[in-house]
Amino acid sequence: RQQVGKFFAAVEQPALRPLPVSLFPVFEEARRTVHRDGYFEFRRAYYSVPPEYVGRLIWVRRETRLIRAYNSRREQIALHAEAEPGRFTTDPAPTCTAASVM
Length: 102
What we know:
This protein is α+β, with helices and mostly antiparallel strands. Helices cover about 15% and strands about 35% of the residues.
């Protein structure tokens, strides 16, 4: 039977710890299929991957402002800056793999 504001100021507020210096890691993940043109869609934008992944399922992870694409072995195959919806982003130096070298 105390006033909430006074109780908070007297008891609870001194027990609070400071917030962490950095932000908590925030990410979003999803599976996507690579389209015939070599791009996958994520959050209504399109990102390129190496041509050997056309038609395959990949794992996509968005963290901060980066889009990372991974193959089935969880190896990173592409890295892009997040694009606006409707835009296409092409990796100028796609990751080379054994299949693309042959």
